Amino acid sequence: MSRLAEVNPYQAYLRDLFHSDDADLSRLQAEAEAEGLPKISIGPEQGKFLQLLVQLTGTRKALEIGVLGGYSGAWIARALPEGGKLIGLELEQKHSDFACMQWKRMGLADRIEVRVGPALDSLPGLAGEAPFDLIFIDADKGNYPAYLDYAVRYSRPGTVILGDNVHMGGSVVDPERQDSEWVQGMRSFARMLSKDERLMSTVVPYSDGLAMAVVK
Ligand code: SAH
Ligand code: MG
């Protein structure tokens, strides 16, 4: 979303200090754009935040739903310890191929694997990989409630569950947009996160709104 790419001076100042992409991540983003991949990845602030969470929680096994060009996956994978693993679920073969090519170039290929297809088809087959230590949901918003059900099922106490784009560029609170399947999916997801007694949750206002929960 180009709207999200707009950076205000304070954000630019913080990016300079804390969140700038290094050469590999910049190249990934430039090549993704050249390939015509949509510009809807997380921002570097969120990437750094995911990295901090991976370290804080001692994550060894992570799950990402919605890989795109591998930008968020690269941030997560870089923070994994030796022997750590990220499993990505991605609908589009083209996105997966691009991401895997980038990760290979970055020396991350040995710790990431992607399962291509609708995430709801891949998720039942991941039971043997559970529990995950960190789960990042960032795919089609209408299915967020179903992804959250799986995330909780595939968790343990202390697992961190994240969901991107709670704000949806303002749609989530736009009275004119409430009929949209994606808005309804996001609102159900946010309600589930806030009410589920097994979770302690908030939304971090980075970029388009990053929901975050810890399993009690
Ligand atoms: N996490 C990425 C951005 C993901 S964009 C980053 O920040 O770098 C959303 C991705 O979800 C797209 O690549 C899209 O192809 C994928 N997607 C959409 N519907 C999906 C589905 N049903 N199952 C799996 N992936 C899906
Ligand atoms: Mg997103």
Give a nutshell description of this structure.
This protein has 216 residues and is α/β, with parallel strands linked by helices.
Provide a count of the helices: 9
Could you tell me the number of beta strands? 7
The outline comes out as globular
User: What separation lies between the terminal Cα atoms?
Assistant: 34 Å
CATH first level: which class?
A: Alpha Beta
Could you state the CATH homologous superfamily? Vaccinia Virus protein VP39
Proportion of residues in β-strands: 15-25%
Heterogens: S-adenosyl-L-homocysteine, magnesium ion
Compute the average pLDDT.
96
What's the gyration radius in Å?
A: 16 Å
What is the number of domains? 1
At the third CATH level, what is the topology name?
Rossmann fold
Provide the spatial order of strands within the biggest beta sheet: 3-2-1-4-5-7-6
Category by helix and strand content = alpha/beta
Biggest sheet record = 7 strands, mixed
Q: What is the correct CATH architecture? A: 3-Layer(aba) Sandwich
Show unreliable segments. Answer: none
Sequence of secondary-structure elements:
HHHHEHEHEHEHEHEE
Helicity level = 40-55%
